[in-house]
Amino acid sequence: MKSALKKVLIVGSAPDAVCTAAWDTSFFSHILAINNAWMACPSWNCLIYPEDFPADRQPCAKALEGKQVVTAQEFVPVQNQFGGFVYAGGTMSFTAGYWALGALKPDVIAYIGCDMVYDQEPGQSTHFYGRGAADPLREDVTLQSLEAKSLRLQALASRKSCAVVNLSQRPSSRLLFPRIELQALEELTQPALPAMLNTPAVESALRAESELGYWVESGRYWEACGKFDRDKLRAIDALWLATASKAVDPSSCFSNH
Q1: Residue 51 φ/ψ, nearest 5 degrees
Q2: In a domain, 29, yes or no
Q3: Is the dihedral of CA 36, 37, 42, 46 positive or negative?
């Protein structure tokens, strides 16, 4: 019997994104492909990409029939509901998560192909389509700690009664979400959000963000990056890192009935 939970799959462009082609993804309400990932995941029904995503990388009109495209016009207002891009981290993996959280209101968000680990040997693929630019590793004041940004997303999702998990089987990930297997995720019928994050620490991090007041309503934070203090943002990252408790077995994050 299919789960009544609303589950969203987010697919990035890491080499393991191609595994989704063999998955039964019918239990997901939405399958959100980031940038090029629509080419790796045949069952995608939503596509999200930034303003500078090349037109020749976008699906043709026929391929878009019955699908949803999410651009800055849609994701910037939603991102702003969660504190904006400076604090969330200016890379599409996190933008996709916040858009899914705010627009789709799921019970579970699951990631695949978004581990943001690029330490392959020379000549090896960094993306499913070959070697690509590692967007999260560019020099960016909002991306000093990808781990901290993942904990922030997890914390804000938890406040919306949404769990965030990682389906990746890769040995390492910059995402600090609990790991879970696809079959286990499909069988989940009643998520019980674990006490994985320190609530007072979460409140401290959010309060520090509010007091610092870094806000760019347009979403184009790079146009105002000269106003941002790297050390102060690093201090806020440290607050988010402090919200994490010891590692939790993903199976303990939910209860099945």
Answers
A1: -65, -30
A2: yes
A3: negative
Does residue 116 lie within any of the structural domains? yes
The reported pTM is: 0.87
Burial class (CB in 10 A: 0-12, 13-18, 19+), 82: buried
* Spatial distance between the Cα atoms of 73 and 87, rounded to a whole number of angstroms: 19
Which helix (H) or strand (E) segment holds residue 78: the answer is: helix 72-81
Residues 96-154: pLDDT tens digits?
999 999 999 999 999 999 998 876 544 555 544 444 555 554 578 899 999 999 999 99
Taking a C-beta distance cutoff of 8 angstroms, is the pair 208, 120 a contact? no
Question: 2 in a domain, yes or no?
Answer: no
Q: How many domains does the chain have?
A: 1
User: Which backbone phi and psi does 69 adopt, to 5 degrees?
Assistant: -110, 130
Tokens found for residue 5: 């939970």
With beta carbons less than 8 A apart as the criterion, state whether 8 and 109 touch.
yes
* Chain Cα centroid distance, residue 171: 18
> Checking phi first, is residue 52 left (phi over 0); if not, alpha (psi -120 to 50) or beta?
alpha
Cα four-point dihedral sign 173, 236, 94, 253: positive
- Domain membership flag for residue 176: yes
Cα separation of the two ends of the chain: 12
**Beta strand pairing status for 190-191 and 254-255?**
antiparallel
